[in-house]
Each structure stands twice: as structure tokens, then as C-alpha cells.
Design goal:
By secondary structure, the protein is mostly helical. It has 2 domains: about 140 residues; about 130 residues, no CATH class. It is built from 12 helices and 2 strands; from the N terminus they run ααααααββαααααα. Strands 1-2 form a two-stranded antiparallel sheet. Helix 9 packs antiparallel against helix 10, helix 9 runs antiparallel to helix 11 and helix 9 crosses helix 12.
């Protein structure tokens, strides 16, 4: 199993965060099967092309497939990292993980449709499709564009909404998990990043809902905010983490407070000038 190999190789492990999930749970095994099925649904065609023209037609979808594949792998890796860090197997975590798998499966086709459309537009490929009647029509009409972006953004918000709830669950169980002050800060950072992703998705939904061509275009371009927003947030939280590390080095050699004291130490350290 790929998770076991990654654990053996130390992929996703960090000396800055103690790993509590050393074993692959049955929930993760189920998740791998679902992610594998979702990737299968992205495949351009399950049949081997019979002619070179058919091969070229299939290759048109390669770039969109690559983008969608990468996005699914990133979601999978975020889930893998969560279970490695916290090793949670309680009922609520199971339900939240099931919700994540549901969203991934449900939005595979909208994800593929949107990226196929965008990649074809960037490459100058005609997006028209031929109906069974022989009529040639655009893949999406202009008045449908806002609905397409809204559907895409709802899926985006749903994925990061589930991750937000997962990290909130880990933060709520910080005493039970015996998270030290650095791990508490890192958990809060991950929670905030997922909430910021949700905010960008909600902004896209709001712009798309306006329905006009200009706002629909802005709803797509607003995803370009991800880089700057995450960079600023990372710099801010990185500075706080360095301050906390310095405070811990100055006060004690052991960064692991007793259960229940982690939040107080974070608040105290970050309040220093």
C-alpha cells in the first residue's frame, strides 16, 4: 500500500510535528480505494483508440487530466498528512472523512468538465460538441457559465470545509492528543489556511451569482488570490512560530507542556512584544 511505503520512507513526516498515526487505519484503506476510483473516472477513455485520429482526439484531454489528477493527489496528500499527524479514529473523524470522500467522488466530473473547457480555451481548441441529432453546439452556453463556476466553487468550498472541520476536531482534542504549544500553533495555522481557501471559494460563488459576463470572469480570476493570500498568512504565522520557538528555547528545553497547558503557553508566548 502506498501509505505504508510513504510512512517507511518518512514522506510527510516532520521533526517539527510528532507523528501519532504510525499505522494505516481501515478508514485510510477505504479512502485510497475511493481516491483510486475517482482518478479512474478522470481517464479520457477506457478504450484503446483504434486509429491515429482517435488517439489525437484522446490526447486533447491530456492537459486537463493532468491538472485534475494533480488536484486529487493534493487532496489525498492533505488527508494523508492529517492522519499521520493526529492518528484520530473516532466516530466524528470517520464521518468527516466520509464526507470528504463523498465530495471528491461527486465533484470529479464537474472538475474534469471545467478544466477541460479552460484548457481547450487556452490552447485555442474548439469546445463545441456534436449532439446525437448531428447539431453542433457549444459545450457551455454563455448564460450557463455562472452556474458552471458556482458548481465548481461549491465543490472547492466543500473540500476545504471538511478539512477545516477535521483540523477543528484535532484542535478540540489537543489535550487528549497531548499537542505541545508548537503543534497547537501549527494546527491552528492549518485550520486558518483551510478557512481562507473556503473564503476564496465563497467569493467566487458570490461573483458568479451576479450572472454577468464580467463577474463570471472575475469569479474564475479570484482563484489567483490563493498564492498571495497563503503567502501573507504563511509569513505571519511563520513569524509567530519563530517567536514561540525562541520563547521556548529561552524558558525551557522541553517544548511539550502538560496536557491542557498548550493553549495557555501559546497565548502567553505570542503576547510578548
Amino acid at each position: 500500500m502506498i501509505r505504508e511505503k510513504l510512512i517507511e520512507s518518512g514522506i510527510g513526516m516532520s521533526t517539527k510535528f510528532r507523528m501519532r498515526g504510525r499505522e494505516v487505519s481501515r478508514v485510510e484503506a477505504l479512502s485510497d480505494a475511493v481516491f483510486g476510483f475517482a482518478i479512474t473516472l478522470l481517464v479520457v477513455s477506457l478504450e484503446v483508440p483504434q486509429t491515429f485520429d482517435a488517439l489525437m482526439e484522446m490526447m486533447r484531454g491530456f492537459a486537463a487530466f493532468a491538472v485534475c489528477f494533480a488536484m486529487l493527489i493534493l487532496v489525498w496528500y492533505q488527508q494523508y498528512k492529517f492522519f499521520r499527524r493526529y492518528g484520530l479514529n473516532d466516530a466524528l473523524t470517520f464521518v468527516l472523512n466520509a464526507a470528504l470522500l463523498f465530495v471528491v467522488l461527486f465533484y470529479v466530473y464537474p472538475l474534469k468538465f471545467v478544466w477541460t473547457l479552460l484548457v481547450n480555451m487556452m490552447l485555442g481548441i474548439d469546445n463545441s460538441v456534436r449532439l446525437p441529432t448531428g447539431e453542433l453546439v457549444p459545450a457551455v452556453a454563455m448564460h450557463q457559465m455562472w452556474k458552471m463556476m458556482a458548481v465548481f466553487s461549491v465543490g472547492y468550498v466543500a473540500v476545504f470545509g471538511v478539512f477545516s472541520l477535521l483540523y477543528w476536531r484535532a484542535y478540540a482534542k489537543r489535550a487528549e492528543l497531548e499537542l505541545n504549544s508548537l503543534e497547537v500553533l501549527d494546527t491552528r495555522t492549518e485550520l486558518e489556511e483551510n478557512i481562507l481557501h473556503m473564503g476564496i471559494g465563497l467569493l467566487s460563488i458570490g461573483l458568479a451569482s451576479a450572472g454577468t459576463r464580467g463577474y463570471v470572469a472575475l469569479s474564475g480570476f479570484c482563484y489567483m488570490l490563493i498564492g498571495p493570500v497563503m503567502t501573507v498568512h504563511g509569513m505571519f504565522r511563520g513569524k509567530q512560530r519563530r517567536r514561540l520557538e525562541a520563547a521556548l528555547r529561552a524558558g525551557t528545553s522541553d517544548p511539550e507542556p502538560a496536557p491542557g497547558q498548550a493553549e495557555e503557553r501559546v497565548a502567553e508566548s505570542l503576547s510578548r512584544p
